[in-house]
Amino acid sequence: MIRNDQELAVTRERVAMFERMLEELRKTARPEEWPARTSGYRAEIERMQREILDYLVHTPPGPKRTTAA
């Protein structure tokens, strides 16, 4: 569960890392082994994306910050 914007950023980086791993795997995996080799990555990406969306739609924004003039 994502609790703050810092954890949101970390989770987004993890999603990007898993996507890069899948990109690299596409270069080496054989077609017949593709579903078995990628299902875990996909499940983890989908789980993290759900966490990101849950955080974004269920966490109210913090107080507005003003800039000093």
Provide a descriptive summary of the structure in words.
By secondary structure, the chain is mostly helical. Helices cover 71% and strands 0% of the residues. It has helices spanning 5-28, 34-58. Helix 1 (5-28) packs antiparallel against helix 2. The longest helix is centred in the middle third of the chain and has 25 residues, at 34-58. The chain is elongated and about 50 Å long. The chain starts with a helix and ends in an 11-residue tail after the last helix.
Binned strand content: under 5%
| Number of H/I helices | 2
Helix content: over 70%
Tally of DSSP β-strands: 0
Q: Report the uncertain regions.
A: none
Distance between the termini: 37 Å
Radius of gyration over alpha carbons? 17 Å
Inertia-based shape: elongated
Secondary structure category: mainly alpha
Q: Would you tell me the overall average pLDDT?
A: 90
Secondary-structure element order, as H and E? HH
Q: Please state the oligomeric state of the protein chains shown.
A: single chain
The biggest sheet amounts to:
none
